[in-house]
């Protein structure tokens, strides 16, 4: 059987809100993480491993590192498209993001977050991602479908 690879990625479109803007009318830099979080939520829901499923599997996944490159200021009441792609999963969870202007396609921001699995029971970091998560990602890469 041929090993088919369906990248685990998604896109969400949002319109920025006034409450996310600073006094100059552009989105405050700290609020970009809300957009990353929404894209990450949608991405992990594709494999039925959102935060509730993570917790039910006995793991939490705290963010341990972030990197953000602000390319162009994003004004409020502006439609943006956030892409999220899973790029590492064996020992940690790394998701790469790009925010685009939804109308022009111009890149406005590039970022990534890194998370690690922590056993809820032992309160210890896992050095390998949990088998359940790895199985879900592998199934997605082979079939493009969610493993319940």
Q: What is the CA–CA distance across the termini?
A: 22 Å
CATH architecture designation:
Roll
- Rg calculated over all Cα atoms: 17 Å
- Kindly report the spatial arrangement of strands forming the biggest sheet: 1-4-5-6-3
Low-confidence stretches: none
- List the secondary-structure elements in sequence, H or E: EHHEEEEEEEH
Oligomer: single chain
Would you tell me which CATH topology applies?
Answer: Thiol Ester Dehydrase, Chain A
Number of helices: 3
Mean pLDDT: 94
What is the percent of helical residues? 10-25%
Can you put this structure into words, describing what you see?
The structure is a single chain. The protein has 148 residues and is of the alpha+beta class. The chain has a single domain, classed as Hotdog Thioesterase (Thiol Ester Dehydrase, Chain A, Roll), CATH 3.10.129. It is 22% helix and 33% strand. The chain has 3 helices and 8 strands; from the N terminus they run βααβββββββα. The protein has helices at 32-45, 51-56, 131-143, and strands at residues 9-15, 59-60, 63-70, 79-88, 93-101, 107-115, 118-119, 124-125. It has a 5-stranded antiparallel β-sheet with strand order 1-4-5-6-3, with helices on one face. Strand 4 (79-88) and strand 5 form a beta hairpin. The longest helix is centred in the N-terminal third of the chain and has 14 residues, at 32-45. It is globular, with a radius of gyration of 17 Å. The two termini are 22 Å apart.
């Amino acid at each position: 059987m041929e090993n088919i690879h369906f990248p685990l990625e998604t896109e969400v479109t949002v319109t920025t809100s006034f409450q996310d803007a600073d006094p100059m009318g552009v989105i405050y830099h700290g609020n970009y993480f809300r957009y990353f979080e929404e894209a990450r939520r949608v991405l992990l829901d594709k494999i039925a491993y959102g935060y509730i499923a993570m917790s039910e599997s006995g793991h939490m996944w705290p963010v341990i590192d972030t990197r953000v490159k602000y390319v162009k200021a994003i004004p409020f009441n502006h439609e943006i498209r956030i892409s999220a792609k899973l790029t590492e999963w064996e020992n940690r969870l790394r998701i790469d993001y790009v925010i685009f202007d939804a109308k022009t396609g111009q890149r406005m921001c590039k970022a990534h977050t890194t998370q690690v699995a922590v056993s809820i029971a032992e309160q210890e970091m896992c050095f390998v991602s949990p088998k359940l998560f790895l199985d879900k990602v592998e199934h997605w890469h082979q079939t493009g479908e969610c493993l319940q």
